[in-house]
Automatic annotation (TrEMBL):
Domain Xylose isomerase-like TIM barrel: 34-297
Key word Ubl conjugation present: no
Molecular functions per Gene Ontology: isomerase activity
Pfam families: AP_endonuc_2 (PF01261)
Protein name, per record: Sugar phosphate isomerase/epimerase
Keywords: Isomerase
Highest taxon listed in the record's lineage: Bacteria
InterPro entries linked to this entry: IolE/XylAMocC-like, Xyl_isomerase-like_sf, Xyl_isomerase-like_TIM-brl
UniProt key word Isomerase: yes
Organism: Streptomyces similanensis
Entries under PANTHER family matching the protein: HYDROXYPYRUVATE ISOMERASE (PTHR12110), INOSOSE DEHYDRATASE (PTHR12110:SF41)
Coiled-coil region list: none
Length: 300
């Protein structure tokens, strides 16, 4: 019998429909995404890249609500390890996303660090390891961001470790958590990205449970990942090779992750993200339906 996972709120995101950009002719149109995510049986969505869904709050709220959906979070990319010089430009883009996120009734803002290599061209943009000074900029910058977003918009930031960023491996994630204030900054644990970078999601939940504020559910194909590592591929080409796969065919196993999250005793969003950019427009819906069925079999 499946465990009861009554503290887990399952949703999906534009990412699972092959959406990475605000506007790209290869992507599914936004109305189709909303129609299909509801058809697949999800109740919650993320906003995806700013500008993909309508940015007028009244229109967005109406389009989401009339399909029986609700918004769990917005998403921003930041480069706070560059220090105070980037604060103003960072805040300008955060503010517009946070304002729209608040207008939908959501309470979370997912914050992703910037890439150290280009996810299309593989160009090395900066060293993959931060200096001690850059670590301070990153951690203090995220604390400032957490404080300002909470004060101004009433949202909690959840920082998302991500492949090809400076916040990726177990060592980097633990250093980040140990260096930040839990009152200001918590984590969006993406099970796929963490596995991609060698981390153990269940161990992280059991060790740093009080810092887990949000989940992204994703799996990695171990065989493809081995080739990606051997070939030194950046994340974008790795996705095109199929490194992120449909559950339950990859790692980590999602039921133990969800059970560990349930044991924390708090309500948590668990948003499905299967990176598939670019993909044929008819591919996402059947996968989404099967994934939702699988998660129900796990108790979620």
């Amino acid at each position: 019998m499946a465990p009861v996972l009554d503290r887990i709120r399952v949703g999906s995101a534009p990412d699972s429909w092959g959406v990475w950009f605000a506007d790209d002719p290869r992507q599914v149109p936004w109305r189709r995404f909303l129609d299909e995510v509801a058809e697949a049986g999800y109740s919650w969505i993320e906003l995806g890249p700013y500008g993909y869904l309508p940015t007028d709050p009244a229109r967005l709220t109406d389009e989401v609500a009339r399909r029986g959906l609700a918004v769990s979070a917005g998403t921003v990319f930041t480069a706070l390890h560059h220090g105070p010089a980037v604060w103003e430009s960072t805040w300008a883009q955060v503010a517009r996303v946070a304002a729209l996120t608040r207008a939908t009734g959501a309470r979370h803002l997912v914050v992703i660090p910037s890439f150290w290599r280009d996810d299309k061209t593989a160009e090395i943009l900066e060293p993959p390891e931060l200096t001690a000074e850059q670590w301070v900029h990153l951690t203090k910058g995220m604390e400032r961001l957490g404080h300002e977003v909470k004060e101004t918009y009433g949202l909690d930031i959840v920082v998302h470790p991500h492949a090809d960023t400076h916040l990726d491996t177990e060592a980097h994630v633990e250093r980040f958590l140990d260096s930040t204030d839990s009152e200001l900054v918590n984590l969006c644990l993406d099970t796929g990205h963490y596995a991609y970078c060698g981390g153990d999601s269940v161990k992280l939940i059991e060790t740093y449970g009080e810092r887990i504020g949000y989940l992204h559910l994703k799996q990695v194909d171990p065989a493809v990942l081995a080739d990606v590592v051997a070939d030194g591929l950046p994340f974008g080409p790795a996705v095109r090779r199929g490194v992120m796969c449909e559950p339950p065919s990859g790692v980590p196993e999602l039921e133990p992750v969800l059970v560990a999250a349930q044991r924390l005793g708090v309500d948590l969003f668990a948003i499905v993200e299967q990176d598939m950019y670019p993909c044929p427009p008819d591919r996402p819906l059947p996968i989404a339906v099967r994934t939702r069925r699988f998660l129900r079999s796990c108790g979620a």
